[in-house]
Amino acid sequence: MPDVVLTMSDVEAGYGGGLVLQGMSLALERGTITCIVGPNGAGKSTVLRVISGLISPAAGTVMLADLRLNGLTPAQILKSGVAQVPQNRALFDSMSVHENLLMGGYVIRRDRKLLNERLAMVTELIPIVKDRAHDKAGNLSGGQRRMVEIGRALMLDPSLILMDEPSLGLDPKSVAKVADLIREVTSSGRTVLLVEQNVRLGMELATHGVVMEQGQVRLTGDAAGIADNPEVASMYLGKVGK
């Protein structure tokens, strides 16, 4: 049987009394990369915000393995093993790369041994965090920033990492490096759920794909199969948009 890390069941959620998600259901298997695509307003980023606790669902359930996330605060969800790499510039520009990583491990700061173990793990996986450790984050390129953001998310050794448009604003070389890092992140059993404005990249990177429309899942399955679906290809592939 599949090892399911996260389950969303009939979730309804939105902003200011209006519903964006209208019966959203989703299951993520351990060690996979799932990419959500769909038109503007489909609810893709709202899915990430519900999972991370930034939005409370009006109905339905969100489960991380056997833990019900409904009602937990973002901090509690973070400690439970869910980290998010947001779309917008999320590093502290005036702080060094090393200091930004320490911020990612803030909740374990009193356990120096564990903190150092996590720093060593991130440094081995992402060499740039050692090479540029004392540089201000504001001096990094877009691709370097994104890799440090992923490294910071890994400081709590999450089982699930949420990524909102990880390729946004990056040049092709940086996109390739970030894609390789995302694949490496899952090699140890971590799970990635991403929303990606570069639909072709997202489906090439992912193992599973989800097509959303009007707050619901329209199509889900193997990413390669979804990419080959003529209707999906005609609507999304090769286009940049969210």
Count of DSSP H/I helices: 10
Radius of gyration: 17 Å
What is the H-and-E element order?
A: EEEHEEHEHHHHEHEHEEHH
Overall body shape: globular
**How many individual domains?**
1
Give the low-confidence spans. 238-242
| Intertermini distance | 34 Å
Sheet/helix structural class: alpha/beta
CATH architectural designation = 3-Layer(aba) Sandwich
Q: Whole-number average pLDDT?
A: 91
What would you give as the CATH superfamily?
P-loop containing nucleotide triphosphate hydrolases
Question: What share of residues is helical?
Answer: 25-40%
Biggest beta-sheet profile: 6 strands, mixed
Strand order of the largest sheet: 6-7-8-3-9-10
CATH topology: Rossmann fold
Q: Report the β-strand fraction as a percent range.
A: 25-35%
